[in-house]
Specification:
With 289 residues, the chain is an alpha/beta fold. It is built from twelve helices and six strands. Strand 3, helix 5 and strand 4 form a beta-alpha-beta unit.
């Protein structure tokens, strides 16, 4: 019965796939009255593992990986290299941020949600990053370096759109962790401007108002979270409880609000012609022009 409900959820949100196990869990809770506790979630993850191993649910429909990869692009021979170059030309895509005068990034607390966010953001050339954890100081320093270079050499302000849980950790990760640290680093690099002039942060989701308007089920703050003392008795909400199509719409709306639509459409319209030009100039399989 649960597996049939899971398949219905995957079919309903097929345009947002892959979903995380936690997203499927919250959809089961909201639509089918599935128990909302960690034991029920653990049972569900076991069901999902068995379903994928048996082939009843496609592996690509669910995202639960936590691995990091450092890969290299090497080639079998020169023909393999020329093939790769031609494929790059055939798939050439204009960076839609180039003519917009602004850089945009998305930071998502849940790494497993990155592919579905990217499905929306990549059409605008907006990258997606995972910002899980409180100790990724190197990543925050790298971000400060990137936005400082964009401002100094290109005169471009960066807008960082943030997606995270509405709970003590999620709120602290955004305001005290990401924003405060990056602004401090930027301030040490660019002295003559306020850090907020160089990089602006915006919390896109999840807010208490969004959770209430979408009838998300609240949960008390985790007692094991030391930040819960300042949070008090306020309810918490998880980003993955938000319907995937609703979240996709939020992301799209936030990005397009920063874009000049005419410039964007002109960039899209110019892509086929540029691809044809590139294809004519690229070498053939034997390396001949």
């Amino acid at each position: 019965m649960v597996l049939a409900q899971v398949k219905d959820i995957l079919d309903e949100y097929r345009t947002e796939l892959p979903l995380t196990a936690r997203q499927i869990f919250y959809r089961l809770v909201g639509a089918y009255g599935y128990p909302k506790n960690e034991n029920a979630y653990e049972r569900l993850t076991n069901i999902l593992v068995r379903a994928r191993r048996s082939g009843r649910v496609p592996f690509e429909s669910i995202r639960d990986d936590g691995a990091s990869v450092l890969s290299c692009k090497h080639y079998e021979d020169k023909e393999d290299f020329y093939k790769h170059v031609r494929e790059l030309g055939e798939n050439w895509t204009k960076n839609k941020l180039t003519n917009q005068g602004v850089d945009v990034r998305i930071y998502c607390e849940a790494a497993g949600m990155m592919p579905q966010i990217a499905r929306v953001s990549h059409r605008y050339s907006v990258p997606v990053y995972s910002c899980s954890g409180f100790d990724a100081l190197t990543s925050k320093y790298d971000l400060a370096q990137d936005v400082s270079r964009a401002f100094t050499y290109k005169g471009r302000r960066t807008v960082v759109l943030h997606l995270g849980d509405h709970d003590p950790s999620g709120e602290s990760m955004f305001s005290d962790g990401l924003v405060e640290d990056v602004h401090a680093f930027v301030g040490s690099i660019i002295y003559h401007k306020k850090p907020s002039d160089v990089v602006m942060f915006k919390r896109v989701a999840l807010t208490a108002e969004q959770a209430i308007s979408h009838s998300l089920e609240p949960a008390p703050p985790k007692k094991t979270d030391s930040r819960s003392k300042k949070w008090g008795a306020k309810p918490t909400y998880q980003l993955e409880a938000l319907p995937p199509d609703v979240l996709a719409g939020m992301v799209d709306a936030e990005i397009t609000a920063l874009f000049n639509r005419e410039i964007f459409e002109a960039d899209v319209a110019a892509q086929p012609g540029t691809r044809r030009t590139i294809a004519m100039q690229l070498p053939g399989a034997d390396g001949a022009a």
